[in-house]
Amino acid sequence: MIIKxxxxxxxxxxxxxxxKTALRTANEIESIEVAVVLENGITGKGAAAPTWVIxxxxxxxxxxxxxxxxxxxxxxxxxxxxxxxxxxxxxCCVGNTSAKAAADIAMHDxxxxxxxxxxYSYLGDRKPLTTCMTVGVDTPEKMAADAKQAIADGFxxxxxxVGSQPELDIDRIAAIEEAVPDHVMLRLDxxxxxxxxxxxxxxxxxxxxxxxxELIEQPVAAHDLDxxxxxxxHVSIPIMADExxxxxxxxxxxxxxxxxxxxxxxxxxxxxxxxxxxxxxxxETYGISCMIGSMMEPGLSVGVQHTLQxxxxxxxxxxxxxxxx
Length: 325
Prior knowledge:
Strand order of the largest sheet: 4-5-6-7-8-9-10-11
Radius of gyration: 20 Å
Number of helices: 12
Distance between the termini: 33 Å
CATH architecture of the largest domain: Alpha-Beta Barrel
Low-confidence stretches: 311-325
Mean pLDDT: 89
Structural class: alpha/beta
Largest sheet: 8 strands, parallel
CATH superfamily of the largest domain: Enolase-like C-terminal domain
C-alpha cells in the first residue's frame, strides 16, 4: 500500500494553570500533529511538541523536518517496507528527534490499522500500567496543595519537580509528605537543577527525614555523566537518567558504565517507538528497569506512550505521564 501524502497541523492548547520545572514555565501545549495518508484512505496520526530547553526542537524546525526530509523519505513508498521506512525516518537528517518521533508514531498507527488491529495490539498485550501525576515546582505550600489534589483525584504516585532554588527542596518535600497519606510514593525530578555534591547532601537529608522517595530523576546536568555516577554511587535511592538519554548509544554508555540505576525513555528525545524499543532492549540486557515519559505533549502522543509495552523480561517497568500534556 503506497503512502500518498504526509500532512501536518499546528495548534496551541492552553493549560488550566502554568506548569513549572527547573528548566522552564509552560502556559500552553504547542502541538504539531502529523498524518500519514495511504492510498486507500487509511490515515495514521502522530504528534510532537517543541521543547527548546531539552531537545532543541522548535515548532518551525519540527514542521520543516516533517514537510522536508521526512516527507521525501516516505511519500510514494510502499508501507509494506515498514521497517525500512522507519529506518529512513531516522537517517533522513541529523537530530530533529521530535519530528522523527511524530512521523514514527504516525507510521505505526497507519501500519497497524492496515493490518486490522489497534496499535496497542500490534505493540503487544496490554498490562496494568501505573501512572503518576506531576506536581510542578513552586512554593512548598502550593506544591503541597497540588499534591493533595492529585491524591484526591485518585493518583497513588506523584512525580515532584524540584531543582529550582535547591535550598527550598527539603521544605517542598516536607510539606508534601505532611499533606499526603503515608502510602503515597514520591518520584523526584530535579531536571538537572543540582550539583553532584549538593545532590548527595540533599538526598541524604531526605533519607534522614525518612521521606517516601521511590527514585530521583536527572539530579545533575545532562552532560555531567561523572557527576551523575557520583550521585548514583553515593546514595541508596535509585537514580534515573532523563535528559542524559537521547539515543541507543547514550543508553548503552549509561547502563554499561552503571552511571544510573534506571532509564526514562521519552519518545520525543529518542525519535519514536522503534528507537524506544531498542533502548529498552539494551536496558533489559543489563537488568536495568525503564520508565516511559513525556514532555508536555498533546494527548495523541501521550496516549501512544501508554500503549507501549517494553520487553516483558524486565525486572520492573515504571510507567508515568504528565497529565498537563
